[in-house]
Amino acid sequence: MIENGRISVLQMAILVYPTIIATAILLLPAITGDQAKQDMWLSPIWASAAGFLAVFLAIRLNNRFPDMTIIQYSEVIVGKFLGKAIGLLFILFLAHNCGVTLREYGEFVKGNFLEDTPLAVIIGSMIFICALAVRGGIEVMARSAQVFVPVVTVLFIVVLLLLIPDITPGNVQPVFKDGIMPSLKGATVAAGWFLEFFVIAFMLPFLRNRKKSAKWSIITVVAVIITMVVTNLVTLFIFGALTPTFTYPVMEAARYISIAEFIQHMESVVMAIWVGGIFIKISVLLYITVLSTAQWVRLSDYRPIVFPYAFIIGVLGHWSAENVQELEKFLKETFPIYALLFLALLPTMLLVTAAARGLRSQNTDNRTSSDASAGKDRSK
């Protein structure tokens, strides 16, 4: 196979969690707050249906084609010509999504910390570090995530706990003031983030044992739901109706922290959370983009194209938007439709077609039996 590394289901979950949540914790409260008002905390709950759908599609397709990604089995399902066209469109989507994520990172760092640093330097340094991780393979990325994610999670919980003295729970009332529709409108935006759970389709072929992949995928979706709901609630408790007026509500909330005039200026902690999480997210997106391209052109190794792709994505990130307002508009209005097309409708079409034609990889039975025997060997 083009990737010889193998990861566990737990490592997959640790990789996927920051891939979804890294950008959501800073940008989503303002975007959902604009649509859902005081019901913004409900939007991630409704939007989670998209996450469960993405997990279902990825796992069902992997059950039929265990050693393939969507780039490979699309050719099996709909034929070589149409499959190649679908693969190319998917690669372009992945590359653009990675570029947009890189630009989100650049805008945040430049706008809040390094105002005099050129955006190209901020973007270039991050994509270079991510490219080094991607060249190491999926195992290196998984081990990096095992180091970063627990630290980032603890820091995030600490920030939330330190905000407790400043919260005003009454800001959440009245619930359902204008009915359920505002929270559902906010959910359409959050659904775009949840649909990114389809990235597990690129990790499932490289699991040591796929037996518990569905269980850990669902656990990860639930973890993302809890994180988004808590983040939206805390920002709502602090800012109330003013939440949508901030580009990064969590960052603004961190500036409120002041305990005994000793624990202050927690913005640096938020910065650490963001950089750690975004490093994992960009690495994962760059990895699946490079892997998909290598599979599409049938290369024996994806590593030689990592740095050229990193340069291209860096340029895409620089050109993806003129400013943070335009970027936020894209995430609010265009990205949900964009994600729905590539991460839900397209995989659904492929799954339905494969089921209707009775298509299944010849290696399915062999892979299943090898997974079972591997599980027995580890239990001895």
TrEMBL record:
Membrane topology term: Multi-pass membrane protein
Protein's cellular compartments: Membrane
Pfam families referenced in this protein's UniProt entry, alphabetically: Spore_permease (PF03845)
Similarity comment: family membership: Belongs to the amino acid-polyamine-organocation (APC) superfamily. Spore germination protein (SGP) (TC 2.A.3.9) family.
InterPro entries registered for this protein in UniProt: Spore_GerAB
Protein name as it appears in the record: Spore germination protein KB
Species this protein is from: Lentibacillus persicus
Predominant cellular place of this UniProt entry's protein: membrane
Keywords associated with the record: Germination, Membrane, Transmembrane, Transmembrane helix, Transport
Transmembrane segments: 12-31, 43-61, 81-102, 117-135, 147-167, 187-207, 219-242, 271-290, 302-321, 337-359
GO-annotated biological processes: spore germination
Single GO cellular component term: membrane
